[in-house]
UniProtKB/TrEMBL annotation:
InterPro entries: Endonuclease-I, His-Me_finger_sf. The keyword Nuclease applies. Keywords: Hydrolase, Nuclease, Signal. The keyword DNA repair does not apply. Pfam families: Endonuclease_1. Belongs to the EndA/NucM nuclease family. Residues 1-22 form the signal peptide. This is Endonuclease I.
């Protein structure tokens, strides 16, 4: 049997040191991959991705019946290693005795005798390198345990799996039931049990009107103050009114029907005051996005009190539905649903999901308007109602951990 030993500790990316872009070897943690190929060695390939899903090392094109040893130098962080066998028959048995062993800092991370079986998906293992503790690691409860120690887009995907599991679609009509159970009840401003409407609420003054839960839901309306409706924080036209997005109560807020209609399917943004063409009773407004926003098209701007609430819904939607936002190999992605969706979603991306101007805006709103008690209570009611949570309310630091990493693409997408 032939024997090869390969060191991968210096170069930046493919077949590279696993702290991409780092030349300092002093702080790296040793890793090694031992491969024994079968008689179809060329069918095997592998890659290692970091927490932003960047490929930092990979291998393919192996000789048959050959022993390989591959050495790494890892920066502390979260990673995943994936193996694929093109023949879907593994590395053993009918085609010889192959095997895989993967070590990090002397500890066995993954071992397989090569009997993958007839699989259609890659053999994968997530692992953490070094003394890597995120600020929230010690606080994670059982619900988020599978996201412990992850970072970047690996964290986002782990959260996606957590909040997808247990989510039971209660139907579009279920939103009325959710509101009746207290999912949109004002116990924080007037504290009178009326509908908490983000488009009419005046945090430090008297509301222009109040709605009684159940009695005042729309029907028809001719002006502001007539009735309350179900507002999709992310307009349903952006995902072709598909379920369960349409009925997800994490993004269905009770708001005045007339203002809801005035917003339509516009993105949220910050308005150029000289272009305002509509203002609601509490100061929410519609107009062109200002130049610094990076999107010079019509947008809708809520009052400051609720900007963080909206941002955390956007981050929730990007995470809960990352598997349907841009389905591979189809043309059903949200990017193509409307002109407004085109301006919001990043093409061919289920990781970053939004264009950079949206990410920058939502991160700023998230930081400027921290999680409120109202959000915390609403999140718990949503969990009890449909079986899943908004992780960015439970752990606001997840936003920075996923979208705020160094090297994030900051170029804005401008519309003329």
């Amino acid at each position: 049997m032939n024997i090869y030993k390969i060191a991968l500790v210096a170069a930046p990316l493919l077949l590279a040191g696993c702290g991409a872009g780092s030349d300092n070897q002093e702080n790296k943690v040793d890793g090694s991959l031992i491969i024994n190929t079968d008689r179809n060695g060329s069918e095997l390939s592998w890659e290692i991705t970091n927490s932003r899903l960047e490929v930092v090392a990979s291998g393919s094109g192996y000789e048959s019946s050959t022993h390989y040893e591959v050495d790494f130098g890892f920066d502390p962080g979260g990673y995943r290693i994936d193996f694929k066998d093109e023949g879907l028959d593994g590395l053993c048995c009918s085609y010889g005795e192959g095997s895989i062993e993967f070590y990090v800092d002397g500890q066995l991370v993954l071992s397989d005798n090569g009997d993958f079986g007839e699989f259609t998906e890659q053999l994968s293992q997530t692992f953490v390198v070094g003394d890597y503790q995120n600020s929230y690691a010690d606080e994670l409860d059982g619900y988020y345990a599978d996201a412990d120690l992850l970072d970047g887009y690996l964290l986002k995907t782990a959260l996606h799996k957590i909040i997808k599991q247990g989510h039971t679609d209660q139907g579009y009509g279920g939103a009325w039931d959710f509101y009746a159970l207290g999912g949109s009840e004002d116990q924080y401003y007037e504290q009178d049990g009326s509908i908490l409407d983000i488009y009419s609420e005046v945090p430090n003054g008297e509301d222009p009107y109040n709605y009684t839960i159940g009695d005042d839901q729309c029907g028809n309306y001719s002006g502001e103050g007539d009735c309350y409706n179900r507002e999709h924080i992310m307009p349903q036209s952006w995902f072709d009114s598909a379920y369960p997005m349409r009925s997800d109560v994490h993004q269905l807020y009770a708001t005045d029907g007339y203002v809801n209609n005035a917003r339509g399917n516009l993105p949220y943004g910050e308005v150029d005051e000289s272009t305002v063409d509509y203002t609601s009773a509490n100061g929410s407004k519609r107009g062109l996005g200002h130049d610094e926003l990076g999107y010079r098209q019509p947008v809708f701007e809520p009052i400051d009190e609720f900007k963080g609430d909206i941002a955390r819904v956007f981050f929730y939607m990007a995470t809960r539905y990352e598997d349907v936002i841009n389905p591979e190999g189809t043309r059903d992605d949200w990017f193509e649903q409307s002109e407004e969706a085109y301006g919001v979603f990043q093409q061919n991306s289920s990781d970053q999901v939004y264009r950079s101007w949206v990410i920058e805006l939502m991160m700023r709103w998230h930081e400027q308007d921290p999680v409120s008690q109202g959000e915390i209570d609403r999140n718990q009611k949503a969990f009890e109602f449909q079986g899943n949570r908004n992780p960015f309310i439970d752990h606001p630091e997840f936003v920075q951990q996923i979208w705020g990493k160094e090297g994030f693409e900051s170029a804005k997408f401008y519309f003329n």
